[in-house]
Amino acid sequence: MVAMLPQHVNAAPANDLNTDDLAKWLRQIFGPLFLVIVSIVAIFFLFTREITRFVQFIVLAIGIGVIFYVPNIIETTAKAIAKALGVS
User: What integer is the mean pLDDT of 5-29?
Assistant: First the structure.
């Protein structure tokens, strides 16, 4: 069956899947969306005068923003925790 396929079908693709810029692309797409959602929810909490929930939400949003925007933060944190626990 393979012998009956045209020559261009049997050839392997010249370029492999490139995921080097995937994180950068995702940040460009979801970064502004994240900021808009955080802004809308924060304004809602301020207008309804729920200061405690506003502060909780801002702390959570800052934590998520740091994880999302700082490159390699998860890898660096995992290595630091493993080193602190004595795992090599």
Answer: 66
